[in-house]
Write a structure and sequence with these properties.
42% of the residues lie in helices and 14% in strands. It is α/β, with parallel strands linked by helices. It has 3 domains: 163 residues, Rossmann fold (3-Layer(aba) Sandwich); 158 residues, Rossmann fold (3-Layer(aba) Sandwich); 148 residues, Glucose-6-phosphate isomerase like protein, domain 1 (Rossmann fold). A 5-stranded mixed β-sheet has the order 1-10-9-7-8. It is globular and about 65 Å long.
Length: 521
Amino acid sequence: MVQIPSDVVARERLGPLSSAVEVAATDLVARDALHRLWTSDHTLWQDDPREAADRLGWLAVADQMADQVDDLEAFAAAAAADGLRHAVLLGMGGSSLFPEVLWRTFGARPGCLDLRVLDTTDPAAIARVAAELDLDACLFVAASKSGTTIETSSQLAHFWGLTGGDGRRFVAITDSHTELARLGRQRNFRRVFENRGDIGGRYSALSYFGLVPAALLGVDLTALLAGVAPAVGPTTGAEHPGGEHPALRLGAIIGAAALQGRDKLTLVLPHEIGTFGLWLEQLVAESTGKDGTGIVPVTGEHLGRDKDYGDDRLFVSVGYRPGLDDLAAAGQPVVELAYQNRLDLGGLVMVWEQAVALAGAVLGVNPFDQPDVAAAKEATAKVLEAGLPGIEPVPLTGLLDQIGPGDYLALQAYVDPGDDQLLRGIHDARMVLRDRLKVATTLGIGPRYLHSTGQLHKGGPPTGVFVQVVGDDPDDVAIPGAGYGFSTLKQAQAAGDLLSLQERGLRAGRVKLSELLEVTA
């Protein structure tokens, strides 16, 4: 059985943050924050119970899902026995990010289904599924909490048409009584998994949204869930470790750091769970980035030297990484979390979910709502109705010149997520700009980031400078019944988000993709 050590926060070198962290931890203990979290006391964050007390089902979901392991494994075995070899997950945000982590981390066991996560509206990526996979051997998993996510609904319509409407090759994961649940039953899907409705998308990793794909891959579900209980530990009583509880400690650290101006939470992850940062990014950004405050998660940057960083960073590493000692010696705050192997993921999920919820209490925000996410959806709808606007690219230097200390550069790339060469080029440009500007950088692939960091971009601190690039689409793929194709949808999402950022007075512009790539020359 996997055990997350009780000292999850294995090593702290907090430097200038030491006093602020102790104050925050002491305050959380005085407020009985951990016990109140586990007893669903919404007043820990706000007086109104809505979008708080009804969003805490994730606290108990691991125990409940442990009772479903046999059923999930039987479902996956039956799919494989029926000749299905590939699972294609159609979803966005909290419905897709942890499945992506599982696929990249574990791969598929022999005899189980390989997994492809399709969280995009890029037509080249959509078309690649039919070009590379035998559709007769594909199980399409449509995952959406609301049941009406436009990307998922569009993908489902496309592949339903391609397969001739064979319901046995489709699965739905959604809340009860949604349009997707109704559609799945009407069309005789192989299975409709109904998730409990009191779990928000970004907290749903250990629910059906994460464990159905895990079962199809052949991940050891029992071992994955085994690390959850040790990650919880006693939340009250004599055995409660107070300010040393791992989740409380981590929440106090990241919350206090943000209040002290070190709001760029720079995550350093082992290679084998490197994509865990995709899930953490959404959890942190969407939970804390609102009301003009928030924590900016930075994932995917190469670890640099002290001269590459400003005084707005907090480094949190899962496991030890060479280079951290030098940063700590130079005065950068560094926290190392214990790590043994990839089956620690279940426990790490629970530690981080608790920590971010408690960080919300430190920051004074509700970690369970997302007041600005709807803005991008509404902007997309307006663009689709009115027609694509003509957006003239601006010089990259004009945006970069606006960046100052404490800011962050957010690259937003509406490109084919399967074009590895292009993504390497964008990543290289990101690293050049980080080292040149000495500011934190983030990279979001559109429209995925709209369901992840988009809330932070619009509702968090106004310290981002947003550089949008949009790839060309030589060929489009039609969306049945929509009257437009995936390229138009992608372009509308990009335009809608850019206009939404600009309407808020934020520093944002579209740049030619070629100009961004040229910064490495």
